């Protein structure tokens, strides 16, 4: 996890790196550091805390001259978050300075060797071990920096995206990647390096995404030299044109990225289906799917692998695929799937869902499924990320950058893509009548306006949040399509407000959780129009008769639940299968407002990071 940034060119590196780190803070925010080089002196400053803490220290402690620099924002893996363990890390000679995102798994063995050779270590990090290994190779083999990096990395087991420079080479940065993302922005006589393209988007639209086991020697004013780490083969890199713009990665007047992203949902859901869903003509066209339809229609089953919110989107998809396309679906936590020797055959289709496209467990599940011969399809948001490159084919969600650690628009856009896939397959297989197919298409097209309407309840939900902000436990209940929404609502509340919340299928309540119900337990129940409506009403009665407090998500115009519930949050009517796209909105807003009222760091909740690129 961690974010890395680098710059080499003719401008002052400091503001570029500082801004870049602020944009990458979603990747980790327990410490930060920067190293600047003006050709004579290296200025290094690092601190426990956020990038804003680094900024304060830099002002007091170092000279910010230099048109070469590297910076890091950390999510600790080896060593507690403190000043010493922060990156950049120096080599013993003080000549090499390195930043690292990832984990060097065999660092202890390497460290032991280096200790025997007289190296000393001031931090507990695997990164300090790596920079000294590179120094050791450089000295002993008498090679240039690039070659030393290549030899050293061949001794390393683990994952990394690194950037480093040598005091003796003021015009060069070396970068390398395995398992962690690394993009190189190409400007005029200047280069940028970062974990994603956001730090350099206002400077250039051209970027190279390094592949795993590639490194690049970047020299000011020259071509980039990309090579394979294993055998030193030269690579002709693919320069990609970026779609992102600066506005997309700024808050746009909202207090938090999370709120901005919640309110973006009507437009990004539209972006997700734009050009792909032609409701009037009865057409769904997904570029990544067209050539592989048979893989899906002939599949024995679909296995969905994902983590967190993406896993919840997978659960919604299980209902839609089985209901409409009549294909058996299993939804797996990627972290369990990858380690439990699953039975996968060539007749399985595996769908990997990931906003970031970098989640380590999901990526490992993709690789495992490929090894076992399954066809693997990715549904990701971040263009050019690792999972889309590792899968056989896939669909981007086009939700734009999601910066808030709590996933919101990723969830609804993932469901939008999955719904389109299920509908397309259902039509081809003839598992739903054509009239139903057309009806679903038209309803999907209306979802952005319905989400817009659901968002209008924001103020009312804020008032409900005020009433419940002091509570320690919440229960979330839903049935059918809205059971995964209950799980997602509970996850949102937990992760940003630190209030304990549990999501449960409403009918399971009487098998245990009902014992928790008393007048102090708020129960959020999704009770919109559905086949299970009456049953959910009975569940609500069961809670009420035990003095539980009900906050219900209901369909506009509902009269029955309105009478029994203590508080209601209304959403517009839609088909049951599409209802998760609207019922999730009030739950996102409820968790957001409670977290704000509790003064939590909404966009960067404690202990979390946006993309979990470690196991
Ligand atoms: O980038 P991914 O979709 O693969 O991320 C998966 C989870 O880490 C992510 O959904 C996480 O649970 C969010 N913080 C939830 O809001």
Structure, described:
This protein has 615 residues and is of the alpha/beta class. The protein has three domains: 3-248, Glutamine Phosphoribosylpyrophosphate, subunit 1, domain 1 (4-Layer Sandwich); 252-453, Glucose-6-phosphate isomerase like protein, domain 1 (Rossmann fold); 456-598, 3-Layer(aba) Sandwich (Rossmann fold). The protein contains 20 helices and 27 strands. An eight-stranded antiparallel β-sheet has the order 3-2-4-1-10-9-11-15, with helices on one face. It has a seven-stranded antiparallel β-sheet with strand order 5-6-7-8-12-13-14. A five-stranded parallel β-sheet has the order 19-18-20-21-22, sandwiched between helices. Helix 7 packs antiparallel against helix 15 (434-455). The protein is globular, with a radius of gyration of 25 Å. The model has no long low-confidence stretch (mean pLDDT 94). It binds 5-amino-5-deoxy-1-O-phosphono-D-mannitol. Residues 307-310, 354-356, 359, 362, 405-407, 410, 491, 495, 611-612 line the site of 5-amino-5-deoxy-1-O-phosphono-D-mannitol.
């Amino acid at each position: 996890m961690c974010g890395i940034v680098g710059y080499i060119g003719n401008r002052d590196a400091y503001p570029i790196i500082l801004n870049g780190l602020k944009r990458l803070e979603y990747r980790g925010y327990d410490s930060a550091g920067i190293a600047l080089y003006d050709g004579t002196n290296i200025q290094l400053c690092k601190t426990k805390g956020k990038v804003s803490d680094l900024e304060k220290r830099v002002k007091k402690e170092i000279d910010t001259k230099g048109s070469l620099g590297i910076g890091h924002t950390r999510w600790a893996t080896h060593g507690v978050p403190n000043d010493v363990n922060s990156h950049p890390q120096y080599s013993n000679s003080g000549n090499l300075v390195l930043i690292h995102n990832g984990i060097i798994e065999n660092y202890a063995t390497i460290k032991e060797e280096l200790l025997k050779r007289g190296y000393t270590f001031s931090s507990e990090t695997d990164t300090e071990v790596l920079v000294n290994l590179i120094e050791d190779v450089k000295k002993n083999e008498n090679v240039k920096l690039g070659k030393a990096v290549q030899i050293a990395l061949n001794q390393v087991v683990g994952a990394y995206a690194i950037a480093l420079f040598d005091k003796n080479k003021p015009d060069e940065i070396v970068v390398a990647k395995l398992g962690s993302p690394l993009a190189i922005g190409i400007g005029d006589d200047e280069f940028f390096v970062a974990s994603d393209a956001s730090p350099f988007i206002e400077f250039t639209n051209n970027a190279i995404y390094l592949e795993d086991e590639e490194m690049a020697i970047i020299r000011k004013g020259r071509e980039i030299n990309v090579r394979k780490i294993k055998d030193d083969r030269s690579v002709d890199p693919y320069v990609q044109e970026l779609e992102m713009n600066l506005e997309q990665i700024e808050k746009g007047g909202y207090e938090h990225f999370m709120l901005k992203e919640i309110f973006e949902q009507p437009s990004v859901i539209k972006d997700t289906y734009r050009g792909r869903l032609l409701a009037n003509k009865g057409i769904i066209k997904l570029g990544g799917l067209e050539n592989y339809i048979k893989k899906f229609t002939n599949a024995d089953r679909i296995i969905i692998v994902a983590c967190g919110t993406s896993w919840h989107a997978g659960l919604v998809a299980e209902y839609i695929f089985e209901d409409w396309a009549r294909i058996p679906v299993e939804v797996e936590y990627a972290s369990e799937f990858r380690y439990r020797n699953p039975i996968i055959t060539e007749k399985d289709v595996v769908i990997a869902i990931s906003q970031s496209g970098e989640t380590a467990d999901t990526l490992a599940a993709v690789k495992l499924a490929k090894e076992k011969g399954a066809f693997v399809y990715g549904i990701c948001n971040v263009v050019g990320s690792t999972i889309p490159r590792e899968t056989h084919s896939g669909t981007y969600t086009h939700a734009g950058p999601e910066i808030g650690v709590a996933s919101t628009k990723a969830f609804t856009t993932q469901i939008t893509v999955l719904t389109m896939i299920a509908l397309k397959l259902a039509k081809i297989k003839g598992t739903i009548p054509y009239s139903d197919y057309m009806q679903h298409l038209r309803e999907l097209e209306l979802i952005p306006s319905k989400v817009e309407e659901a968002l209008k309840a924001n103020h009312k939900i804020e008032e409900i949040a005020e009433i419940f902000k002091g509570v320690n436990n919440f229960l979330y209940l839903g049935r059918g399509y809205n059971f995964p929404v209950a799980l997602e609502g509970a996850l949102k509340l937990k992760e940003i407000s630190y209030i304990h919340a549990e999501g449960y299928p409403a009918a399971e309540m009487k098998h245990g959780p009902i014992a928790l119900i008393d007048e102090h337990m708020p129960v959020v129940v999704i009770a919109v129009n559905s086949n299970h409506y009456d049953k959910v009403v009975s569940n609500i009665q069961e809670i009420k008769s035990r003095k539980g407090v009900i906050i219900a998500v209901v369909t506009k115009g509902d009269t029955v639940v309105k009478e029994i519930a203590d508080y209601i949050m209304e959403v517009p009517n839609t088909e049951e299968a599409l209802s998760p796209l609207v019922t999730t909105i009030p739950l996102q807003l409820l968790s957001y407002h409670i977290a704000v009222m509790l003064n939590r760091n909404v966009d960067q909740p404690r202990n979390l990071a946006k993309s979990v690129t470690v196991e």
